[in-house]
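Here is an idea for our session: we take a single protein and study its fold together. Which protein we use is up to you, so please pick one and set it down. Once you have written the record down, we can walk along the chain together:
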Amino acid sequence: MYSLHEGSGLLLLAVLAGLQIAAEGRGTTPCRPGFSEDVYKVVVPDITEKGQPLFNVRFLDCGRGGLVRFECSNPSDFRIEADGVVYAARSLQHSTLPVSPLLIKASDSTTLQQWVTQVRLMPSTQSSQQVQEVAVPPVMSKDLKEIVFPSRNTDSQLKRMKRDWVIPPINVPENSRGPFPQELVRIRSDHDKNRSLRYSVTGPGADQPPTGIFIIDPISGELSVNKPLDREHIPSFHLRAHAVDLNGNQVENPIDIVINVIDMNDNRPEFTHQIWNGSVPEGSKPGTFVMTVTSIDKDDPKTANGMLRYKILSQNPESPTSNMFTINNKTGGIITVAAGLDREKVPQYTLIIQATDMEGNPMYGLSNTATAVIRVTDINDNPPEFTAETFFGEVPENRVNVIVANLTVTDKDQPNTPAWNAVYKITGGDPTGRFSVPTDPTTNEGLVTVVKPIDYEISRTYVLTVEAKNEIPLARGIHSPRQSTATVSIRVIDVNESPYFEPNPKLIKLEEGMMPESTLTTFTAQDPDRFMQQTIRYSKLSDPANWLRIDPNTGRISTIAILDRESPFVKNSLYNATFLASDSGVPPASGTGTLQIYLLDINDNAPRVFPQEAEICEKPEPNAINITALDGDLNPNAGPFAFELAHRPSDVRRNWTITRISGDYAQVSLKIGFLESGIYEIPIIITDSGNLPMSNTSYLRIKVCQCDINGDCTDQQHIIAAGLGTGAIISILLCIIILLILVLLFVVWMKRRDKERQAKQLLIDPEDDVRDNILKYDEEGGGEEDQDYDLSQLQQPDTLEPDAIKPVGIRRLDERPLHPEPQYPMRSAAPHPGDIGDFINEGLKAADNDPTAPPYDSLLVFDYEGSGSTAGSLSSLNSSSSGGDQDYDYLNDWGPRFRKLADMYGGSDD
């Protein structure tokens, strides 16, 4: 009996068994087509969902293939597929199950034979015991197909024989729900009649990954599937069957078994994109391709399970018709089928596309949907139209780059596209091209702009005809309407214009030398404002040489000075003066005019010699000077010139001679063989070639000098020629001498200052102990270094080593000591007091001549006598036994600092 529990059934297993038995048969018994059972008893769930498989009937078609068709007696509740699987056509409950048996009919369309079987449906609430009593054997009975090992030689040696047939593959439907294990086939060997054998299978799905899918009974040889199969994961399995005896010896050659997983419709079609975007131009004809949508189905594409069909479920909006597009049910290509696509009305369509497998069978196939968004693209099917027939504007005269009027248009095409952007063109009313109409890129307005000055006195109004088009031509069949042309009326506003001189500049020719108060010309301006009653006044704006005057009312120009062509204000014989003309308008306007005076040359400038200075050797060999003449006038009032020497002084013609080389050049040379060095000024008379010739005596300054072998003046002579006379040279020498004297005095003063500082008193009043304190007053000295006294250096110098002390036994504080302080031996006798003065003088002299001494005053440190010195201290001079015999008067000669000692020791006893 078939027992189908919730969402399950033995449909696939039954189909497998039915197909196997029908295809193979048993033995040599003739195949009889028909149902495997006359009555099927099936247990159905209490609640059955629509499309849920319930059971299957097994039909032996004996090789008829797809010629047998199945029909169900209750198609409203059940539907049967070509493979014999029965599905619920709607949701069912056990209370709604039909009372009478369900009839299944099979018909052969070729022979017109029919077979009928009954199916009794039983609710699952009935006890299993009752079910067993009335149940029929299951479809997958123990009557399994056998696969027998091919015969082989009986000798003991294993020898593979050539096979003369191929074992057909075993077909197993995917997604079977059991019960498991589910027998597929029985493997048998002819040797099992006389001995016990063991059977096994190897390969992927058995003992290789994925393991455990197929198992075999080692004794009976029944091969079973142990779990549901998925064709989309593994479509087929290749196993190898083995037969061995109890000792493990192979008794049969292995045979190959192929298990194909039969595809079931368990996968819905899946679109590669959930939303598809396409576009089509508006106005497209029917049959225009739009886009292609595709979907995939994981089921076998060679079967109906994977054969997809497409269709359009809905169109939004349904304008102008609900079927604007169609789809190729096999390829998914979408095309237009109706005319009337208008972007301005419907810019976008949304289609719901459905893909269904089972070749589009709405009852058995699985479906899925996607969205196709079709954008209607714009074409230029709407011309721009003006919002008014006439536009108005006004502009002041003489103004340019001024926007006169804004022309507005409407265009139904997509904004900011070439089909929407307007281009304006003036087709009439502007023959001189004084206006242009560029397009505002933001608003698409036409900006009527003045590009050339407009004269109110010529035209007071303009009426323009403007046409508007798009950047691209209109679509075929569409013409520009009358609204694409408009009229623009422009009024010109009169303004006060500046007077202007005519001609400007004005050129007149005059001879130079014209006397003051001479009238030259009348320079007047014109006022372009013919419709305004105004007066013009004139004034001078620029007159570099201040030669001219203009009458403010009449514009008559006269001179106030002599005109000179050679003036620096005249360039190339032209003199420029600028005048201003102002009208009486409100506000007043003014204009300028330039008067150019071309001055004709007259002979009013005498020539002069050039160059004015030259040099020549005392002994010419030969030695001559080339000269020419400079004349401010122009030819013919300039050259050729006549050159001659003046008659006075008389030695000029005696010493010099002049020779004319050409009309502009002459040569001056010494007439005598020797002339003493010096500066000579030669008067030369030069006469030009004017109609009234002018002569002039100019002086040529010649320096006669001593020359070297090359004929050049010596260096000292060059200095003289350069302008440095004797007085200048003496002045330079005096300055140098004075500077040297100042430097010498400064050096002497510095030496004297150093000597004074080094000769300062070393001894102070006896009441102050120099070993305890050294007080110094009114001395700038060398800063803190002067206060750094080292009394340990006051040692007796006689016992110092020659290489460790100064020659005279003294050292400055700023000098770095080179040796440790030596120990001095005791001396028995004290030196004569006169030795102290010699010692101090010698120390002072050594300090003055010391090259390592710093530039500032420093303390001279004398060797300290020490406690064991043979010389007594200064405080013990008075108590010496020989003190009375010593003459201390010489201390007065040492200066004021030693007079105190002279008074103390050189006086009388009292």
Remarks:
- The chain has a mean pLDDT of 77.
- The chain is about 10% helix and 35% strand.
- Helices lie at 11-24, 128-134, 650-655, 715-721, 726-758, 834-848, 899-905.
